[in-house]
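Posting for a labmate who doesn't have an account.
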Amino acid sequence: MGEHLCRVLDRMDNLGVPICVPQRPKGDVVTRPLLDFAASYVLRGIAQFPRQGSEQPCSLNQRFPWDCRGLRHAPVTDTALGFHHRASGMHAQAGAVAEGDR
């Protein structure tokens, strides 16, 4: 998971942007609880937990090897991440090729 974060930070450096935020997919998004765990202490607070999407890249399998494999090979240039310039408020296209990426 740290590898994916490092790739995102490298992408931010290459684009020259200081901010990266997840983007909500277009259209209707089906969400589900972050944890699929029926323990009573989880169920009592589940409404306060963040939710996850039903499809990648907005979902976790809750199986460490699967999630690691997905993050290790997931592109950081997809539409799930938005790269922003703080001062101008401009939005750098996630798929745009920055000069440092060539």
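Reply:
Got it, the structure tokens are right above this. The two ends are 25 Å apart (CA to CA).
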